[in-house]
Amino acid sequence: MKHFELLGGIDSFVSRGDKVLIKPNMIAPRPAECATQTDPAVIVGLAKLLVDYGAKPFVGDSPAWANTMACAKAIGIIEPLKKLGVEIRQLDEPVKRRLETCRTRVGISRYALEADKIINLPKLKTHQQLVVTIAVKNMFGCVSGKAKAVWHYKKGETFEEFCTMLIDIYKLLNPVITIVDAVVAMEGPGPIRGKPRHLGWMAASVDPIAAETVCCRLIGCNPEDLPVIKTAQKLRFGCSNEQNIEAAGDLDPIKEQVELEAAQLIPLRFSPLRIIKSIIRQIFILAKSRQTS
Predict the structure, then answer these.
(1) What global pTM score does this model have?
(2) Which among 167, 189, 197, 158 is positioned nearest to 266, based on CA atoms?
(3) C-alpha triplet 58, 56, 137: angle, nearest 5°
(4) What is the pLDDT of residues 204-261, one digit of tens each?
(5) Domains defined along the chain, listed by start
(6) What would the pLDDT profile of 120-169 be if each residue is shown by its tens digit?
(7) Three-class DSSP labels, the chain
(8) C-beta separation of 211 from 138 below 8 A
């Protein structure tokens, strides 16, 4: 991946022998053409790069629907990763960690906590609650299982409260780099039921807020409309001042702004009934996935 070269080389981010968590967006078991999950070519390409370099990558997530293997099967990455000797892991076995700003103890997968390095590999998608998700929210997937739905209830009273928790989780796990997959983005009612939209580009940054800001501009979205960016500004986390963001690389293919169809917004806070329904649905999906595996 060219992104590492532009940012100082891969050895600026990982060392040989490092156990590296590749954290894609694997939210639900839908095929690549749906643009629900991080592009399989991006996941496998990064895994191969790390293996060739001498690191020890593994791919992990804690999907909202089904499990990691079901999601991996849907996008066809099980065999390619197996050939590389790269494990796919469910980010379970939560360990309580106290978050810096919101002072809340959240269960984070021990596999994420024990990784030497993390590479954040989100999919660019419109989102029915947070307008667009680009970099920060993807690390919420390191919170195990249906606890994510519970946190939507506990911290979803205001955008600032919820986004402060998301930023705290990002800071705790501290990915060495975020590489945004916008090869085929999602527009409309994301993050699951939207429509694929081919953009054909990727973006990378050591600063997730800078990544969010630049990507917003490229898809015709005002960064000030994103609750994550507004909260980051209040917390003085990351750089959202476009004059201070230095861009490098091949910008010619993305000079023209592409407007994505916006998502119709729904309440951020999950109701107790929605959480119960979500848990029941998850049990059903997991049981079905075991029968077909």
Answers:
(1) 0.93
(2) 189
(3) 40
(4) 999 999 999 999 999 999 999 999 999 999 999 999 999 999 988 876 555 567 899 9
(5) 2-292 (3.40.50)
(6) 999 999 999 999 999 999 999 999 877 888 898 899 999 999 999 999 99
(7) CHHHHHCCCHHHCCCCCCEEEEEECCCCCCCHHHCCCCCHHHHHHHHHHHHHHCCEEEEEECCCCCCHHHHHHHCCCHHHHHHHCCEEEECCCEEEEECCCCCCEEEEEHHHHHCCEEEEECEEEEECCCEEECCHHHHHHHECCCHHHHHHHHCCCCHHHHHHHHHHHHHHHCCCEEEEEEEEEEECCCCCCCEEEEEEEEEEECCHHHHHHHHHHHCCCCHHHCHHHHHHHHHCCCCCCHHHCCCCCCCHHHCCCCCCCCCCCCCCCCCHHHHHHHHHHHHHHHHHHHHHC
(8) no
Tokens encoding 190: 């994301």
> How remote is the C-alpha of 293 from its chain's centroid?
26
Structure tokens at 67: 């499990």
In tens, the pLDDT along 165-211 reads 999 999 999 999 999 999 999 999 999 999 999 999 999 999 999 99
